[in-house]
Amino acid sequence: xxxxxxxxxxxxxxxxxxxxxxxxxxxxxxxxxxxxxxxx
Length: 40
Hints:
By secondary structure, the protein is mainly α.
């Protein structure tokens, strides 16, 4: 069971890599976080 805290950590991880990722890649990363948090 994922808590909101887990999502925030995941989001921060992808946001932190914004210097090396394009916006599309960041969007995919956030989408994965949302999907994982919503399915488990």
